């Protein structure tokens, strides 16, 4: 089915863009942003969180989360990371690629661009940070998908290799001061980490890893996000290229690019690929869950999980 782009009103914003191939759709705000406020099957649930009390707003005295998917730069620092994105976004549509360009953020001198394409069931997002300062800035692209409540993040463990066949570590697990390893929202499986969103827990929770992909299951819908791992690159937050954060109302699946020293007017890029699988039917127990998940991973050309 052919790709279409149309202007729509959504969530109280008069100017949004609906990008769809007939099987899945994105809705992107251009009154504020750049933000992808909706990801879903046409007529189905929004896998992204919507902050009801902020929807449709275009001004305020402080940064608003809105929900959806947003583009930041790491490492996280207040107030630099929390520059309000209330200005309208310029957009171009050419050769079935949607380009979104934000005005330079006056708080930090950084300009953001996102290019979005949708081909053969794959959504590709190319993110760019441009340094409009007259001095160099160290940063990393940071792409945060704020998932709707009630689902679970799925994070593959590294391949099991017995001792002493390999003696070096496989990857790091990064924790924050407020991380609790005994939190019941975690299931530390043998081959898979499951991380539940549960709004009955008021505490915040976060962890980070180095991985090629992660997923979020919400009902029968499965969202998968993948990005490249660049060998020997320095990633922020003690080496994370994926981070996961939850609190009441949502769970974030975040990818990060390498840290770079960005010279004036220089650009750094980061690429994500998204897939949305309906009727995924994923069990809770690890072994049957991995078997079901591997069918989708193999079909998408992603690395499967060895049981």
What topology emerges from the helices and strands here?
Elements lengths: L3 E7 L2 E8 L4 E5 L5 E6 L28 E6 L15 E5 L2 E5 L8 E10 L2 E10 L5 E12 L3 E5 L17 E2 L10 E3 L3 E5 L8 E5 L3 E6 L2 E7 L8 H4 L2 E6 L2 E7 L3 E3 L4 E11 L8 H15 L7
Antiparallel strand pairs: 1-2, 2-3, 3-4, 4-5, 5-10, 6-7, 7-8, 8-9, 9-21, 10-19, 10-20, 11-14, 11-16, 12-15, 13-14, 15-18, 16-17, 17-21, 18-19
Count of discrete alpha- or pi-helical segments spanning 4 or more residues: 2
> Could you tell me the number of beta strands?
21
Indicate the CATH architecture.
Answer: Distorted Sandwich
Whole-number mean pLDDT: 96
Report the order of strands and helices. Answer: EEEEEEEEEEEEEEEEEHEEEEH
Structural class: mainly beta
> Tell me about the biggest sheet?
11 strands, antiparallel
Please state the CA-atom Rg, rounded to the nearest Å: 19 Å
Outline type:
globular
Question: What's the level 1 CATH class?
Answer: Mainly Beta
For the terminal residues, how far apart are their CA atoms?
A: 36 Å
- Whole-number count of domains: 1
Helix proportion:
under 10%
CATH topology: Beta-galactosidase, Chain A, domain 5
